[in-house]
Amino acid sequence: MQSTEILTPAAAGRGATWTGDPPALTGDFAVDRRSTTDWLAAMVNDVDVLPPRAERGEDQQRAVDALHRRARLLRRRFLARHVEALYDDLTDGLTGHLRVDQLTYLAAERYPALVPDRQRIAAEARLAQRHKEGWEIDQGLFLHALLDSPRAGSHLLRSMLLPTARASAAAPEFRRTGRADLELTTVTRRDGIAYLELCNDAYLNAEDDAAVEALETATDLVLLDDASHVGVLRGAAMSHPAYRGRRVFSAGINLTHLYNGCISLLGFLIRREVGYIAKFARGLYQDDGMGDRWWPTTDKPWVGAVDSFAIGGGLQILPVLDRVVAAEDAWFSLPAMTEGLVPGVANLRLTGLMGGRLSRQMIFWGRRLHVGEPEAALLCDETAPVDAMDDAVRRAAEHLDNPAVAANRRVLTLGVEPVEVFRQYMAKYALEQSYRLYSPDLIANLERTWTGRNRERQDGRRD
């Protein structure tokens, strides 16, 4: 490996850049692992000796940007050559099942600086989004490579369909009582129907890391419970002045948490897609003896009850549900351009559901659909008066409580969204979304939104 020159704050202030060349890869896993991690560790050290991002001058930031570009090119080259050997090492030859976060942080231990370690990400999480270094991008590169591999990616997606440890611990009590209170979600079983309610009252049922964790745990409880034949996803009633006493399905991503740097790549943007939403679509993975030939058996039909609105992430859930009942005053939107993020798997699923033209209108132009418009029928199957929603939702769930439903929904899912298509999409999504999370336009959008909200509060208005 060629020698490197440590980049000091003074040197960076003069516009100096990294002078040591990244190592040439040989194709030998052990040799390339050592040379790559050594070079990356030196690069990370050079970033660490500089002031934090919020305190850097323009020359210093340009120097750091150059460091990151070269390091990320090396990471991608190393992973392109050795991703399967790396995954075999992390999973003991595919015999271990690690969740996305466990896998990524184990890689940080065994391959220093290839991905950031838990402590580095925890330190970043204490910063506002605009002040972060952007180490999560390197997690995105890592996950892109894993998911892009048919062998490693398929195994990882199956691992994410295992029940969570929290759900497994809570399952016996839920089976006994038919009720679970997970703070941000509740699950109540009545007559074979499990009602899963999102209760993030402070944010109009917007999702954040904690909500995603609660939603996945609750989903697992429904799927693990033999007495629950059908699941219903619904938003709880709100105390917000504009919606006091009314149910709200979902306000999408929690933009306040995103602004404050509390929305994570692993715990939110990746986990929700390959965790609870994937479990809605495919159920749980519990028979390890089948390997790649796995076929879901622990799955349930799901009804979505859309009260008030389904914005952003809320809308993204609807395509995987088996029946969507919407209140007659509800509306749908997907403000991807306003937020600056890739809207989950909506780009894949909405085109099949609504066609490419209408999908582009919603994603690129922010078109809002109201119940009653002809196009809204592509998102919901049935509408009901607000005061008749309970009965309409119950009837839909009772209809799906039929022995023939399970087999039919499995082959429908296979035809609508083959696992390999989903894997390939998620590989690209992990890469693109990690860069979007730190893009200048997203940061600018958050700043404008935050400034506008503060101005409204000062004027005495409530959002």
Q: Number of DSSP strands?
A: 10
Mean pLDDT: 92
Write the CATH fold name of the largest domain.
2-enoyl-CoA Hydratase, Chain A, domain 1
Low-confidence stretches: 1-17, 458-463
Q: So, CATH architecture of the largest domain?
A: Alpha-Beta Complex
Q: What's the CATH superfamily of the largest domain, by name?
A: 2-enoyl-CoA Hydratase, Chain A, domain 1
Number of helices: 20
Percent helix among the residues?
40-55%
CATH class of the largest domain: Alpha Beta
What is the overall shape? Answer: globular
Q: How many angstroms separate the termini?
A: 56 Å
Strand content is: 5-15%
Output the radius of gyration: 23 Å
SSE string = HHHHHHHHEEEHEHHHEEHEEHHHEEHHHH
For the record, the count of structural domains works out to: 2
> For the largest beta sheet, what order do the strands appear in spatially?
1-2-3-4-5-7-10
The major sheet is characterized as: 7 strands, mixed
The secondary-structure class comes to alpha/beta
State the main characteristics.
463 residues, alpha/beta, Methane Monooxygenase Hydroxylase, Chain G, domain 1, 2-enoyl-CoA Hydratase, Chain A, domain 1, 7-stranded mixed sheet, 3-stranded mixed sheet, 20 helices, 9% strand, disordered N terminus
